[in-house]
Amino acid sequence: MTGSITERMSVALQDRSTRVQRALGSPLRTTRNAVVVGRLLGAAFVVCFLTGLYSHLLQDPLPWLPLPVAPIHLYAWTQGAHVVVGSALIPLLLAKLWVVFPKLFAWPPVRSLSHLLERVSLAVLVATALMEPITGVLNVLQWYPWDFSFRRTHFALAWVLIGAMAVHIAVHLPAIVRAWGAGSESGTEPGSQTAHRSEGASDER
Prior knowledge:
This protein is an all-alpha fold and 205 residues long. The chain has one domain (29-182): Up-down Bundle (Fumarate Reductase Cytochrome B subunit). Helices cover 74% and strands 0% of the residues. The radius of gyration is 20 Å and the shape is elongated. Helix 3 crosses helix 4 (113-140).
């Protein structure tokens, strides 16, 4: 009897998941669009990471790593890029989350151990990706509604973010390559069953 109840619950949740994903469906929620926005987002994060690393190493230099300080406005240029690109991260991140939002309602939520690890790394990625630009903007406004050191925490989270992003790209690289090469006409919805099957196949590789 327990098995039948579990089976009925699984079927009911699967049906509800399908209805929710169908309700959230949009022609813009395709795998290709997720890849396009993801590329812009990834490039922006890399720019912020490198310019932030440059600033951190100038303030806490390493004896064996001399950094260029010329031309005279180099620091202003790099930190200006850091602030501008960092602020642009917020709409890019919201656009990426909007495109992949139906995936949150996929059923079953975890298909294997590798999928569980991928979901955990994705949660870390999303959390740090949201916290970095938000705390950065608050730092520009010189408003610190927290007790921790902004500079040390911002720098540490940047490494966590880059690591989680590398894991995310590595896991989804086959799907990314397929979506980018297939063209916009053949893009599948990130929340669709077809997308889930293709991702499930890539997870098992």
